[in-house]
């Protein structure tokens, strides 16, 4: 290196401050400066190692890809037309919050062993648990392209809109639409089936007292009686080319589509279906 080139190197690297004032630059000084501006073997090795770690896929990267592939499979497997979006919680992730829309929430508490080796995962449901959209614990089989098989346990919760009452209702109160409001409900915690629309409760009344905010189920309502005990009812029988009717006495009360006993003559009774106010049919 020429003296001019050496001084340029010293100026550009800031090594000028390391030289004593008025010191002459000799060959030995040049060697020292050259070693100072060249990376050491340890630094070069560390740099090469860092570069290799950014280019070569690590075990952690393979595990992350496998977890995301399983997450996508779970979301796709449990998606239904009426279920809304699917949210999946993997082990170690924060708990899922209450949703603001109809949706499905899945919680996987343990990852399968050697999941990072599972390519092209495919899920299938155990034959004994064929209903994939019912809330509760599901045991699934995870099939991998390399022949591996794993068992995956997932807890599923469906949130859907169900009718409730915003204010307390006494027994016998007719369920008019003005007395109802939809609420987002976890179906797995609901005892009995709820009602999706207010129209489905038309013709029903409260069987027992309902609390404010309580979701209405089949067990908490009954059809408004269209026939009472002792009523004189019209028994209508229709067929191909004929229609006939006669009077009878109701031996039970009943609402729309309920079957009650009626007396056609003393000691002669049959069961009939309520089709309207004081009207029944076979």
Strand fraction equals 25-35%
For the biggest sheet, the summary is: 6 strands, mixed
Average pLDDT, rounded to a whole number, is 81
Summed up, the helix count is 4
Number of strands: 13
Separation of termini?
114 Å
The chain-level structural class is alpha+beta
Enumerate the spans where pLDDT stays under 50 for 5 or more consecutive residues. 2-39, 41-56
User: Order of helices and strands, N to C?
Assistant: HHHHEEEEEEEEEEEEE
Q: What best-fitting shape do the alpha-carbon axes yield?
A: elongated
Assign a percent range to the helix content: 10-25%
Radius of gyration: 39 Å
How does this model look, in words?
The chain has 282 residues and is an alpha+beta fold. The chain has helices spanning 3-13, 27-37, 41-55, 59-77; strands spanning 86-89, 103-108, 122-125, 136-143, 149-164, 181-186, 204-206, 221-223, 232-239, 242-250, 259-265, 268-276, 279-281. Helix content is 20%, strand content 30%. The strands form three sheets. Strands 1, 2, 3, 4, 5 and 6 form a six-stranded mixed sheet that branches. A five-stranded mixed β-barrel has the order 9-10-11-12-13. A two-stranded antiparallel sheet has the order 7-8. Strand 12 and strand 13 (279-281) form a beta hairpin. Residues 2-39 and 41-56 have low confidence and may be disordered.
């Amino acid at each position: 290196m020429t003296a001019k080139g050496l001084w340029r190197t010293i100026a550009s690297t800031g090594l000028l401050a390391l030289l004593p004032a008025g010191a002459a630059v000799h060959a030995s000084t040049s060697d020292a400066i050259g070693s100072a501006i060249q990376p050491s073997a340890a630094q070069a090795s560390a740099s090469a190692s860092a570069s290799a770690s950014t280019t070569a896929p690590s075990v952690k990267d393979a595990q992350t890809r496998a977890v995301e592939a399983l997450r996508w499979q779970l979301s796709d497997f449990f998606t239904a037309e009426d279920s809304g979006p699917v949210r999946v919680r993997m082990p170690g992730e924060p708990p899922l919050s209450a949703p603001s829309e109809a949706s499905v929430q899945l919680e996987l508490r343990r990852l399968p062993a050697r999941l990072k080796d599972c390519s092209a995962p495919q899920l299938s449901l155990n034959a004994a648990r064929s209903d994939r959209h019912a809330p509760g614990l599901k045991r699934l089989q995870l099939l991998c392209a390399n022949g591996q098989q794993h068992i995956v346990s997932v807890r599923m919760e469906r949130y859907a809109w169900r009718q409730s009452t915003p204010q307390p209702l006494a027994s016998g109160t007719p369920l008019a639409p003005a007395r109802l409001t939809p609420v987002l409900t976890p179906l797995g915690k609901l005892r009995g089936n709820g009602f999706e629309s207010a129209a489905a409760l038309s013709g029903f009344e409260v069987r027992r007292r309902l609390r404010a905010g309580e979701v209405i189920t089949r067990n908490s309502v009954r059809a408004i009686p269209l026939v009472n005990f002792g009523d004189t009812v019209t028994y209508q029988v229709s067929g191909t080319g004929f229609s006939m009717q006669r009077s009878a006495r109701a031996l039970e009360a009943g609402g729309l589509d309920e079957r009650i006993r009626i007396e056609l003559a003393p000691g002669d009774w049959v069961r009939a279906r309520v089709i309207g106010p004081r009207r029944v049919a076979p």
